[in-house]
Design brief:
The structure is a single chain. This protein has 672 residues and is mainly beta. The protein has a single domain, classed as Beta Barrel (Maltoporin, Chain A). The protein contains 4 helices and 33 strands. It has a 22-stranded antiparallel barrel. A 5-stranded mixed β-sheet has the order 1-6-7-4-5. A hairpin with a 2-residue loop joins strand 19 and strand 20. The longest helix has 9 residues. The chain is globular and about 65 Å long.
Length: 672
Amino acid sequence: MNQKNKLACPASMLAAALMALPSSVLAAAPALAADNVFQLGSVVVKGQQSGTLNNEQVMASAEIERYDLNTVGEAVKVLPGVSVSRNSRNEEMVYLRGFDARQVPVFLDGIPLYVPYDGYVDFGRFTTFDLSQIRVAKGAASLLYGPNIMGGSINLVTRKPTREFEGDVRIGYATGNERKAAVNVGTNQGLWYLQAGASWLDADSFPLGRGFHDFRQPVPTDTGKYRENAYRTDKKFSVKIGLTPNATDEYAIGYVNQQGEKGNPAYTGRLNNSRFWQWPYWDKESLYFISSTDIGQDHTLKFRIYHDKYKNRLEFFSDSTYITPHARNLPSIYNDETYGASMELISRAFKNHELHLALHYKDDRHHESEEGSNNPTQKYRDITKSIAFEDLIDLPGAWHMRLGASYEQREAREVYFWPTGKTDATNCLAEVMYDLSPVSQVYASLAYKTRFPTIKDRYSARFGSAQPNPDLQPERAQHMEVGYRGVPWSGGNFEVALFQSNIRNLIQNAVLPLSEAQCGDNNDELCNQAQNIGKARHRGLEISLQQEITRQWSAGLAYSYLDRKNRSDPSVRLTDTPRHRLFAHVSWKPSAQWEVLGTLEAESGRYVSYSSSEPYTRLAGFGILGLKGIWTPRKDISLEAGVRNLTDRNYELADGYPMPGRVWFANAMYRF
């Protein structure tokens, strides 16, 4: 079962990039000051020699607080190219230019956080209170992140204190008995520093939008004003200790403990498809070490070593009382862990070059069991390795280039029942940039990226309806992008990007002939198998504008156009992403102490999977208004109150799963 990926990185891509006329830059947020940013947690740092601008979008903590974005899913969706969906498991799913979380992994200070079994994460479980930045990279994302960044990457960067004693405290309350409390404290003593944080986000439910009950027939559980079984609790504790023995070297140990629980609101659409689920725990724990050591004047050596644990418990009930267990399903328990390490060597020994060489090793282990069952625990283990190379080159004049390549390998070392397998992949990228001015740049990029199939992709029998496929090969995408980023006029930041991604070997379900089907005892029914049979194309436009209009007024917008096509079978739609999406804001500051902030989130509608007889349904577009006032009586105190979904709009991101209606909130923060 040892299979090689025969398609390597096309040499023509690199040659084409060398000849390409640069005309783009990834749309990105304005540059962020280094204060309170844990720079070791950033995978891509501007080179000491190279004059290239950073090719990642940056969402700073100040912006996250300003828009009252409590979770990572809420935060990233205000960026161009990003949309959010919900699934039947009440999970917040992020799509980046049409690529989902399996193809766009999430990292914490460069440490991968995705669940070993299926590659997903619930972005609604990751809170933002202890972050300094969220960094989002798209098609030409740096290969230094490691494997599986076919569609990009999302890196959550924590804080680093800059003063002897600093921190903040915040509290808040919102409709649905939503409560939050968070505290961050830090000290920097020169030779060493300490950063710690604790947060609590809890809600009993959320209000349903105006008109929800007018067309819901039947409404299986939600007969009142609030969504039932929509409770959630997320507690988080983080601590980081760092040593800075000199001006260049740094060593840090970080620990993060997340503890969550949630209910799964029942389906409220036309189908008889209600699930009565609850998660009594959804916990994640990460311990990691990061270091940076200068070797002479021209070389730097970095290490990341980590251990990540994830466990959850899913309970099934027979009805909306959530008392009687479901007759056919026993509680499902996941107990996963990951061991990993990476090493990066940076060399500036050659004039006008900054060379990066990175090695990655990741050991994923998945244990799955059913409480009360006689079935043995299902154990799986994957080993993933990679080597990556990138070179940042300063060319004559205002030209710059970035070239990169990587080789990756994944091997199934342990499988519960089916045979093990091995596969590999090659990635590469090329980017050419031209500085129009010190603050403006155009560029063009080509990238060839892959994503390894997960344990679930290869081995899940889907409750007897599917036949595993250990020989699944990596999905592959070729990205092309052009654009501009910079300050074209006074008070304005403008970014625009045009992109296209061609995807091959896309993993999709195929129906097996009865002669080949091995779906337990269900061979008289349909038997599916995940296969590399898909081809798709994603293309679009992204625009971002931030403008200071006067001393009192400012405004901004982030617009995305995304056109996805299934080239293998155009009749099969690619779902869960809108074609048009807009986030806009306007700010009025009548004085130094007061600010009024208005926001608009709008989508044109999206197609979602529906039923076998009617495969797709189109959800209506929507526009959601937000408004809040901020009073800052002193520099260290902020008080605010506002409303989300001002018009109480009833809307959905997935069929049968309504989003919150009008929500009133109030927050207070003290900084020291």
